[in-house]
Amino acid sequence: MAEGPEATGPISEPTRKERRFLLGTSIVLLAIVLGGVQPTEISALGINFTPTNILALRFLLFAVHSFVLVAFLIAALAERRSWNLRVAEAFRTREARINSCFSHLTLGNY
Questions:
Q1: Domain of 90, in residue numbers
Q2: What average pLDDT does this structure show over 99-107?
Q3: Which residues share a beta bridge with 41?
Q4: Among 1, 76, 95, 101, which one has the highest count of C-beta atoms within 10 angstroms of its own C-beta?
Q5: Full-prediction pTM beyond 0.70?
Q6: For the chain, what is the largest distance between any 2 Cα atoms, rounded to a whole number of angstroms?
């Protein structure tokens, strides 16, 4: 199994969960806006929607989607930067190991 920052990937599991939630809210919003899907009631909660409530529900979904989008972008950018630094450090460490293996070889020895 591979080791190092390349094996873990640039984002963590909580950020992946945010990404999945963002995808879910995107699909719901696309279904409502482009598909014309409008819930009239949620029977499990006993909620009936009027046209005003549907507008409020759209606004609430958009607000939640915007919040999750901003939270995901902040987390993903921070984790990507951290991952880039770990990859660069792993590369420098690998280069240092390679150089130390061949440091005793000089043209004067041959």
A1: 15-102
A2: 72
A3: 48
A4: 76
A5: no
A6: 89
4, part of any domain: no
The residue-averaged pLDDT of 87-104 equals 83
Q: For the chain, how many structural domains are there in total? A: 1
pLDDT at 109 over 50: yes
**What is the four-CA torsion angle of 39, 41, 44, 47, rounded to 10 degrees?**
120
The alpha carbon of residue 45 and the mean position of all alpha carbons in its chain are separated, in whole angstroms, by 31
What's the chain look like in SS3?
A: CCCCHHHHCCCCHHHHHHHHHHHHHHHHHHHHHCCCCCCCEECCCCEECCHHHHHHHHHHHHHHHHHHHHHHHHHHHHHHHHHHHHHHHHHHHHHHHHHHHCCCCCHHHC
